[in-house]
Amino acid sequence: MNTDTSIIGYMEEETSSAKTRTKTTAKKTDKTSAKTTAAKTARTTVKAAKKPASKRTSKPKTAATRTIGETPAPVIKRTSPEQFGRVNVLDITPNAENGLYPARAELGEAFKVTAQVFIEGRTKAGATVSVRNTRGTEKARFPMTCTNPGLDRWEAMVRIGEHSDLKPWDDGYAEIKRQLGEWHIVVEGWEDTYASWLHDAQIKVEVGDDVENALESGAQLLERWAGARDSKLTADDKKTLREAAKTVADKSLDATARLAAATTDAIASLHETNPLRDGLSASNPQRFRVERPKSSFAAWYQFFPRSEGAYFDADGKIVQGTLKTALSGLDRAKAEGFDIVYLPPIFPIGVTNRKGRNNTLIAGPHDPGSPFGIGSELGGHDTVDPLLGTMDDFKAFCAHAHELGLEVALDFALQCSPDHPWVKQHPNWFHTKPDGTIAFAENPPKKYQDIYPIDFNADMEGIEAEVERIMDLWVKAGVTIFRVDNPHTKPVRFWQDVIAAVTKKHPEVLFLAEAFTRPGMMRALSYAGFTQSHCYFPWRNSKEELEEYLAETNGDEGFYQHNTFWPSTPDILTAYLRDNGIAGHAVRAVLAAMGSPSWGIYNGYELIENKQRPGFEEQIDNEKYEVKVRDWDESDKYGIAELLTSLNRIRAEHPACRSYHNLHILPSDDAGVIAFLRQTPAELTGTGKADTVIVVVNLDGHNAHQSIVHIELPDFGFATDKPLKVREELTGREFDWGWDNYVSLAPWADVAHVLTVVED
């Protein structure tokens, strides 16, 4: 739909609705207007007989119609996007790049909309968020609250649709699919006639000034409110308002009693949920892209299939795992509560310049090579490595994952070993040096002699077509997500074209960007269609760094870039994890799981695999270059697997964990303790009750820390005259909290509290 056409369409709908809403008032002037029009017509006819109409220089004067009582603010028709309505609406957020790229939200995800809404003088304004589909049909309406009267700033937490955990292969997903795509958010400003009247009437009744006129105006207003179709009142609501109008108009009662009838709890509630909206003024529509479940709220688990089920034979030689033995990895991911399993490349691995253990330049006779050195005489990106199995084995792997409710994400690294079929078939897809050799990949100081990067300048369209063909093949085999390796080293336009083509054919497919790069590039990749992104979370370790990064991830940035928090990856093992042992792994897991709706764990985390390769920020004996034989029974003695399971359970049970737009940093007075709160209001949880999760973490893996954590109770709707009952979800203990709360956390006991409010 053309944007301008859409805007004008909304304007016409707004005007049409207003005509209906003001029908009662219009009836009072219809007869007078008809007489005036008839008189004009008669006079014009007479004058036309005397002289040409083209010479007429003035219109006949007619008497103005006098309105008894106050005239409701009219709806002023807008015929172009820059025109104001009767009430002014400006500076709507989110709105990046002048609305060129729509904000993004998962179906049912709670998010914040803000705007400046105001009217002239001391008249009071109100504001509402209207959620509309692309046909302009309103599907939901949310009241806004003025959070900064001095700046006329209003805000509301809203959602589009209902949260769902259905997967693309589940029965009922077709209904989910119909709700996806582009929606519009419209901020509607309006004159709050009731609030304006009530403000003045209370003063006049108190001082005895012009009381009768004030109360009569109120009675008329309540009667008009009861008849307003726009307010969407029930029969009982209308009855409440009309009975109040009668009482307010009853001159046999004293003024205080009459006024009280207009200020009952029932009417205050209606003013909140079903107000009288005079002078309704709709903003230009703001575009939102609604994406499927797991586009925002997801828990990832990564493992290498060749290590699953691997063992030592009688001669001490490692026998690698296969896609069949890798089913154990799926079972472990399910048991720990994850919902996406992510595999590194499963394609044939090149022989030329194959890397040995720990990235050595010369491979031993039994070294399997890096899965990222893709391609051999056995095939390229469209082939399963025969050492892992066949395409049928992979399809069976995906089928088992789907039976467990797990999605399969496949790593797509757009690069080749020197043995990849593309090297001979498409030599112009690679960068050739002046001496005629093909340049290998570099990211100084790192060198990847076993990898040829792609050169997009000669035939980008041909590369796009081949990538689209390959992705289509894997989607048909059962893949629903691609984790793209280093997309920031390829043209953004390339990914924009590929993602558009793939999702047009398979709209359920999601894309995760492994892009550790500059903010502009990361934002551009999000605009191009990447659903989620790796990020700099592993290197944000101090309280100050974390508070800043949590706010950034869970603020307006979250409408475009969905940061996924991974404590470690095969490429990343930070000094923090190296130096802080089991407690450090617990700390980073809690921060990742509760700090972002999307988080991930690379397997081996449960076994505290935290020894670095000297001089590098990655594991020694890195799984990228060798097959790992693990004893998973050993994980019980560390307790991390149990913690991961608990964190995923908490996330699944609490709607507050699902949004990129509801995190609040809480003041805490110790530099080693960070505290934050997530809250989703009752009307958006699906349970009818507000959901609040409070997280407090000791960042020090060696020492105990104590802190006072402050909660500004009224800001979150908590009572101030009784204790705030909270449950510690990791241990089951319960506490009474309040404004200021003493917390003591030790690495040998509790490294963190994950509290949920059970009674406020």
Automatic annotation (TrEMBL):
One of its GO terms (molecular function) is hexosyltransferase activity. Gene3D superfamilies: Glycosidases, Golgi alpha-mannosidase II, Immunoglobulins, Phosphotransferase system, lactose/cellobiose-type IIA subunit. The record marks 571 as: Transition state stabilizer. The keyword Glycosyltransferase applies. It is an enzyme of class 2 (transferase). Pfam families: GLGE_C, GlgE_dom_N_S. The active site is at residues 485, 514. Its EC number is 2.4.99.16. Residues 302-651 form the Glycosyl hydrolase family 13 catalytic domain. This is Alpha-1,4-glucan:maltose-1-phosphate maltosyltransferase. It comes from Bifidobacterium ruminantium. The gene is glgE.
